[in-house]
Design goal:
alpha/beta, Arc Repressor Mutant, subunit A, 2 domains, 10 helices, DNA binding, phosphoprotein, Response regulator transcription factor, WalR-like
Length: 211
Amino acid sequence: MTGVLIVDDHPVVLRGFRCMVEDAGVEMIFEATDLVAGYRTFHRIRPQVSVVDLTFRGSGLSGLTLIRRMRALEPKARILALSMHQDPVIVARALQSGAMGYALKDMPADAFVEAFRTVRAGQCYLPHALATDVALLSARPREAPLAEFSTRELQILALLREGKTYEGIADTLAIGYRTVVGACAAMRRKLGVSSLAELIGVAIAQDDLRS
C-alpha cells in the first residue's frame, strides 16, 4: 500500500486538500472525481490513506457506500471521511461504514493535517465536539431524527431535499422506482409523519443533509 487517494467531485476542494496532503509530506497523490473512478483507483493502487468526500452531486451521501466497498476490498484500509455534515448521525454512519477518521471541510488547515496524520498512523480521529456528540447520540434520540435511517434512506432524503421526484431519485441512484417508494414509506413510519410533504419538510429542516 502506497500513496494517498483523494476522492472529491469539487475541483477547487480537491486541489486544496491535495496541497494540504503535500504539506503533510506526501509525494505520491492520486485523485478521483467520482465514485467509480475512486473505487477503481483504490482497487488498483491500494493507497496507504484514502480521503473520501461523503456527498457527491446528484447522489446524496454516496461516499458512505464507497467507503464500505473500500473496506470490503481492503479490511485494513485507512480512510478519512471528508464532509460539511456535522450531524452526529452521519458522523456515526461514516465510522460504521469503515472510516477511521472524520474531517470537516471548513476546519483549519492544521487541523486537517492533524486528522490526516492521525489516520495515516493507523489511529482514529474525530474533532472533539463531534466525538462528544457521537458519544451522546444514543442518549438524545429526540435530537437525532435520522438515527434509525439506513444509508440508502439518507441518500434518498438528501435527494428529496434537492427537489427530485421519485423517478429522478431512482434514475440517480440506479435503483427501482418501487424501492424509492418503499424507502420513503419506511422513513415516514420512522418519523411518524403521514405524507410525502411532511417528509420533504423534515429533509429541508435537516441542514446537515446539504453538500
